[in-house]
Design a protein that fits this description.
heterodimer; A: 281 residues; alpha+beta; five-stranded antiparallel sheet; 8 helices; 13 strands; B: 261 residues; Glutamine Phosphoribosylpyrophosphate, subunit 1, domain 1; 7 helices; 10 strands; 35% helix
Chain lengths: 281, 261
Amino acid sequence: MEANTRSSGRLPAAFLTPGSSSFLDFLSEHAPEQLPGNRPLPPVKGAVEAPHGTTIVAATFPGGVVLAGDRRATMGNMIAQRDIEKVFPADEYSAVGIAGTAGLAVEMVKLFQLELEHFEKVEGATLSLEGKANRLSTMIRGNLGMAMQGLAVIPLFAGYDIDREKGRIFSYDVTGGRSEELGFAAVGSGSVFARGSLKKLHRDDLTEEEATTVVVQALYDAAEDDSATGGPDLVRRIYPVVSVITEDGFRKLTDDEVAEVARSVHDGRLQSPNGPQAPVL
Amino acid sequence: MSTPFYVSPQQAMADRAEYARKGIARGRSVVVLQYADGIVFVAENPSRALHKVSEIYDRIAFAAVGKYNEFENLRIGGVRYADLRGYTYARTDVTARGLANVYAQTLGTIFSSVAEKPYEVELIVAEVGEGPEDDQIYRLPHDGSIVDEHGSVAVGGNADQISSYLGQRHRDGMTLGEALKLAVESLSRDNNGGERTLTADQLEVAVLDRTRPRQRKFKRILGRQLSRLLEGGGATVSGAEEETGGESSGSPETPGDASGK
């Protein structure tokens, strides 16, 4: 597993074999026990109790895409963590938000980031956005065994496609099935409510600021109707994580920036508790 | 059955060393210099695709001369080693010292193994620290030894000449522009004291810049920015960030760290 376990201390042959630019392939050949999906689980009855991350939403706007997640992790009916972060940069031009088993999700993101970085270093070029989305698909499929035991990890992948010059969103199912979403998407326990909200609020001509507000509105709606999704916590100053990806690359909004959006959404709700109204016709 | 000729071990090793040294001396040199904000790598290399200088990890870069397929293999091995180590432990646990050690063992074993031909390569592994005194530069000759270098170092064809030229003129706290100009001057002197002119498109230049806000400190200096630095304009690396494409990926904060805040 470590490079210098051999008596001579030289790099084992696997390290010097030309061929794959994938860290995942290298790991599965050289140290398969380190792959998150590769660890045998003891047989247990029912689902394993572990913290679960909840709602992730994404929305495109001309010139980019926003990806946001609430901050709650739950374990059964208990709140396991109220300030968890579930949205991460994958590389310069993409980000991934993960719903599902938090521990596995965090490890998977770490491996995914490394996979992209490794390719970039070995090849001297970045993967295409489709290529990145497909790698993530492979990783989710590798976790299927765990998913069947209740430890599913479902990501939402968003990025800026440099070739097509627009933001794109990809959603996944537990088997690794990948589908591109047009306009907006949501995953996790509150996704039903978030999607309903996004459907009414999202337009194709949103500005970056409007898109940011739309995803925060959607998370607010999800938090109102889903107990596992956390709304903006104005008391503890814990706000959703919002990231924007444009041709300038990935940017995570600062706490102050999100606080401003979250406060204005909250203030709006003080006037009309159900949020912005869409016209009937 | 014929009896093999007896060759003394000294002779055998001397022959292998001679073989490797000749191979290395055929190539153009690479120089590595410390400057105020980091470490600069300069190679004479007209190719834009086949690199002599590359990124290994956040703060570690690699430069090599000699046979391309051999050092490319070692480079990929190094990237795999660093990424696996960072994945197993933490990003800060990947060090140039560890990597140099593994390279030395690898080169040394290959050099003294009768079944393999010695690698015709000479490597440099460098790590940029928080301050100039924390910078580390290791030179790894073909036979598996490690030399801990300070200030400036050259490998390849005219390494000895270039090294002494650099040694006399390099000083601590040079700006990037000064260091780069010195490096190019040293590379453009040929064996018999003559001078050639090296233009921006014959050079491969990269830096490990400790002032870079991202986790990954490695950056190639390309195109207009390189020309401007060579001409002596006061351009800073960060000032022209947007002009460089390619390997300037973001700084994916590791999920473990982020949740710990």
